[in-house]
Amino acid sequence: MQHLRREVDRLKRKLLALSAYVEESVQRAVKAVSERDEKLAQRVIDTDFEIDEMEVDVEEDCLKILALHQPVAIDLRFIIAVLKINNDLERIGDLAVNIAERAVSLSKRDKINSPFDFQTMAERVQKMLQKALDALVNADAKLAREVLVSDDEIDEMNRQMYDSIKMGIRQDPANVDTLIQVLAISRNLERIADHTSNIAEDVIYMVDGDIIRHGHRQY
Hints:
Blueprint: H1 2-35, H2 38-46, H3 48-69, H4 73-107, H5 118-138, H6 141-171, H7 176-208
Helix pairs in contact: 1-2, 1-3, 1-4, 1-5, 2-4, 3-4, 4-7, 5-6, 5-7, 6-7
């Protein structure tokens, strides 16, 4: 049992390290868009392999613990949650890369007055991610439930953005390529919010044992 506890603690440290790295990647990608910083965007792209390697390492540790220790009860719930959270973190890292690639493209184009309030949406998505990771660190189901409420707001912002971009394309067809890049950034932010909600759901499962997917959320 003591050996299992050491392995679980070690796994938790690895997951938290991955969480911090992914959060930083998202922050850099957002900053690259805001500041039209091609070098920073390229840094996000070039270091994505590190997130991939960390994700594989965490998964291998989970499988090793399951095979060697056959955990039960809360330890088993923790391992299952880590496997799922690990996958969502890796996907968020990929989405940060997608945003960074758009940032590279936008940095080479003339700046336009975008109809999309990128900064507000980006800040709220980052706040969601921060809350979800805090909930993970502190095993805080209440905080995780707050994350789920925020996801509905991001979905609405994404819908409004889509309408704004369509109008922008009609009004300024010469900048259609730039506006499509902006549309892609918004879509990637919305998907980051979705994966963040998945993390929050898994924290709730880990702490309370409640499965709240598929519309069965109880905020």
